[in-house]
Amino acid sequence: MNKLPIQKKVQIINLLVEGSSLRATSRIADVSINTVTKLLVDVGRACEKFHDEKVRGIKASKIQADEIWSFVYSKQKNVPGGMEDRAGDIWTWTALDSDSKLIVSWFVGDRTSVSATTFMQDVAMRLANKVQLTTDGHSAYLSAVDDSFDNDIDFAQLVKIYGPSEGESNTERKYSPAQCTGAKKTVIKGDPDMKYVSTSHVERQNLTMRMHMRRFTRLTNGFSKKIDNHCLAIALHFVYYNFVKIHKTLRVPPAMEAGLIKRLMTIEDIVRLAD
In the chain, fewer beta carbons within 10 Å around the N or the C end? Predict the structure, then answer.
């Protein structure tokens, strides 16, 4: 059985974390798409384990949380009969340390209070101290934060108010973002500093996800076909983002800024996690 050289593995993973699709990666790296998929699965599983073991005891002061929409196999309205449990709309919940830009926790599920509670319990488990938490106005966060942190948190919600989409025609309005006309800050629990009630950093991370993962790019056929591979691609992305990708403002990866590592990691280090 042929074994893929480490340089070829590095090339494949590098292409995937920079937003290439599976088929584009297979063409550029001159390997079969099955080879690319198998490597994604192996490295993705290793990244899930690495994140779970490494990202713990985080000393943060401000955490921002949000959820980003995508879909697997088909959009919810087009899900075939018998595939309701493995196709349709799906949400990726993320929690980001506002100072180090570290992704503290992520969770893939629906947008119900059950998923919110599972996600927030994982966030609470990874933090080493009391923090100030900001989320959007999604009601599922209310019970989730209460169940996960009890009273040991300063929690506020930021609700943005949007006007109509810009553009003169229906087509222009369809592809133009609605203009934000204001925001309402609400204290939910504790004594949060209203100056730092913001979700700007975690919303910017949503753009990073869509740019670096082809599965999240809108209006293409690069969306995930299987839920398991969707989760593994996300695991790979967040290890790359936390430990390898140098943040333009910080000039170091978020994990180094947060004190989790003392030397820069590389794509080859990620590949070797699977070994």
Answer: N
**Beta strand 103-109 pairing with 132-135:** unpaired
Q: What is the pLDDT of residue 29?
A: 96
Q: Which residues contact 189 (CB under 8 A, 6 or more apart)?
A: 145, 146, 149, 151, 153, 154, 155
Helix-, strand-, coil-residue percentages of the chain, each rounded to 5? 45, 20, 35
CA–CA gap between residue 90 and residue 58 (Å, rounded): 27
pTM for the complete prediction?
0.92
Alpha helices in the chain, H assignment, sequence order: 6-17, 22-29, 33-54, 113-126, 140-149, 170-174, 200-212, 227-243, 254-257, 267-273
CA 259 – CA 4 distance, rounded (Å): 34
Distance, in Å, from the CA atom of 46 to the CA atom of 33, rounded to the nearest integer, reads 20
pLDDT for 165 equals 66
Among residues 109, 86, 24, 95, the alpha carbon closest in space to that of 55 is found at 95
pLDDT tens track for 62-90 = 999 999 999 999 999 999 988 888 899 99
Sequence-distant contacts of 196-201: CB under 8 A, at least 24 apart:
196/62, 196/98, 196/132, 196/134, 197/134, 197/156, 197/158, 198/64, 198/98, 198/134, 198/158, 199/64, 199/65, 199/66, 199/134, 199/135, 199/136, 199/158, 200/64, 201/64, 201/96, 201/98, 201/101
Give the integer Cα–Cα distance in Å for 147 and 107: 17
Query: What is the sign of the dihedral through the CA atoms of 58, 99, 145 and 104?
Result: negative
pLDDT tens across 98-151, in order?
Answer: 999 999 999 999 999 999 999 999 999 999 999 999 999 999 999 999 999 988
- Distance between CA 112 and CA 65 in Å, rounded? 15
